[in-house]
Amino acid sequence: MTTKAQPVTLHTGKAWANAQLQQLLERRLPGHSLEAPFYLSEEVFQADMEYIFARHWIFVAVAPQVAEPGDYITVDVGQDSVLIVRDDDMNLKAFHNVCRHRGSRLCEEHQGSLGNIVCPYHQWTYDLDGNLIHADHMGETFLRDQHSLHKVHLRNLEGLLFICLADEPPQDFEDVAARMRPYLAPHKLNDCKVAAQVELIEEGNWKLTLENNRECYHCVGNHPELTISLYEHGFGAQPGPQNAEGIAQFEQTVKDSHCRWEAMGLPSARIEELDTLITGFRTQRLPLDRAGESQTMSTEVACKKLLGDFTDKSLGGLSFWTQPNSWHHFMSDHVVSFSVIPLSAGRTLVRTTWCVHKDAVEGVDYDVPTLTAVWNATNDQDRRLVEASHAGVSSRAYRPGPYSPFTESLVEAFSNWYVSRMRAGVGGAR
């Protein structure tokens, strides 16, 4: 017996109300993908930007992108543009990229260097602390100190830069940072440089991008470059007689590696908080297969100059996921970070950044094609998968499908987190 497919109804315009969104959230079936409007509706997208991206800690950059005084980057999150700059005392500051005169955008380029922040419209000038220091023709009663740039909350977690656009950001970030610093600090990302950065546009909803990232059910057959360095049973499998020995061997390899790394002062144990905190996160250091050194086509290090004080190349891969928009891989020789920024209900920016030791010399210690080959290939493969998924959920035949309990538990954790935070937003909570 077949069930006749029902057309997907999308609410449009101002008719979409929080009450309708609440009903959609309440209907969410645990253990299954989300209903189509979560991926397709413009009204849901606007709610995503208000309740998720404007209220949570968002990963946007790495500290080496703003390495010297006056270095800056701009990051667009929805309608908001944020300016991150390093001041003369080497502190990082974040401001809304909006002049206090008549609202002109201050810096148009994604990245650059400046002495002071000068508005291109009427040349109002701010120092690197955001203070207005020059404004012509404003009269004797004008008070410059009342027109400083509006600040944005910024945290530097061992070289990973997070911003929050809310007036009162989630307070649990400090707990997350305290738990993650011992894992991240030995890699010394603050002492790295950017070797490459690639931006990719996916014609799909941002949640499909995150869902795709949170599982490796699809890796075999789709990611031949990535799986070179991954153990066969390292990304989940339904246990049974056919693979019991392989799973046991992998688990023993993980146990032995953790013992070795912990003895070296490298925390490795899994922390699982993806859907139990407002600032959801997960981390674990896992061994890499074959040469076991790095996520490269040869599985050997891509950079001869190792990070921090490392002398051992075989330190596995430390993974760090944060809700709602990032994942990172820390290895002995380089760090690769991913930031996901929604552009519209059906377009998503994925920005990938590779960092190596600041003293590494391109062409001597590393070359960019070797460093970036695995993730450039994987990102493009993932783009196609996300775009196929977006096309599929647009069909009237689409229904939420069941997650595998063995390989898609992290997708369920993402969906749980997303639904709970949207419910909090709709209900007026923070």
Task: Please give a structural write-up.
The chain is 25% helix and 22% strand. It contains 8 helices and 17 strands. It has helices at residues 18-26, 37-40, 42-53, 173-184, 206-213, 244-263, 368-393, 409-426, and strands at residues 58-62, 71-77, 80-86, 92-96, 111-113, 117-118, 125-126, 132-134, 153-157, 160-164, 192-202, 271-273, 281-286, 317-322, 326-330, 335-344, 347-357. Helix 3 (42-53) crosses helix 8 and helix 5 runs antiparallel to helix 8 (409-426). The longest helix is centred in the last third of the chain and has 26 residues, at 368-393.
In short:
25% of the residues lie in helices and 22% in strands.
How do the helices and strands line up, and which of them pair or pack?
Layout lengths: L17 H9 L10 H4 L1 H12 L4 E5 L8 E7 L2 E7 L5 E5 L14 E3 L3 E2 L6 E2 L5 E3 L18 E5 L2 E5 L8 H12 L7 E11 L3 H8 L30 H20 L7 E3 L7 E6 L30 E6 L3 E5 L4 E10 L2 E11 L10 H26 L15 H18 L4
Antiparallel strand pairs: 1-10, 2-3, 2-5, 3-4, 6-7, 7-8, 9-10, 11-17, 12-13, 13-14, 14-15, 15-16, 16-17
CATH first level of the largest domain = Alpha Beta
Please report the total strand number as a whole number.
Answer: 17
Order of helices and strands: HHHEEEEEEEEEEHEHHEEEEEEHH
Compute the number of structural domains: 2
Radius of gyration: 23 Å
Number of helices: 8
Mean pLDDT, all residues: 95
The order of strands across the largest sheet is 11-17-16-15-14-13-12
